[in-house]
């Protein structure tokens, strides 16, 4: 059984990479520290190396 079948709302790494900024921010507001997200402390990565 895969995680997506067990956990509602589970996001794979591939799906996360494809998300746009607004979707990322919406999920951060829902699941992370709302005040930090609104203050601009949230992160939106577009590229990673090593």
Key traits:
single chain; 50 residues; mainly alpha; 4 helices
Give the structure's gist in a few sentences:
The chain is mainly alpha-helical and 50 residues long. The chain is built from four helices and no strands. The chain has one domain (3-38).
Describe this protein's structure.
- By secondary structure, the chain is mainly α.
- The chain has one domain.
- Helix content is about 50%, strand content about 0%.
- The radius of gyration is 13 Å and the shape is globular.
Return residue spans where pLDDT drops below 50 for at least 5 consecutive residues. none
Main sheet: strands, sense, barrel: none
Mean pLDDT metric: 78
Tell me the fraction of residues in β-strands, as a range: under 5%
Give the tally of β-strands: 0
Distance between the termini: 31 Å
String of helices and strands = HHHH
How many helices? The count is 4
- Using the alpha-carbon principal axes, give the shape: globular
| Rg (C-alpha, Å) | 13 Å
The figure for the number of domains is: 1
- Secondary structure class reads mainly alpha
* Helical residues, percent: 40-55%
Helix and strand layout, with pairings?
Elements: H1 3-6, H2 13-18, H3 21-31, H4 34-38
């Amino acid at each position: 059984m895969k995680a997506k079948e067990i956990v509602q709302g589970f996001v794979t790494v591939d799906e996360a990479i494809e998300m746009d900024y607004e979707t990322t921010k919406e999920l951060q507001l829902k699941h992370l520290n709302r005040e930090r997200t609104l203050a601009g402390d949230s992160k939106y990565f577009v590229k990673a190396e090593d």
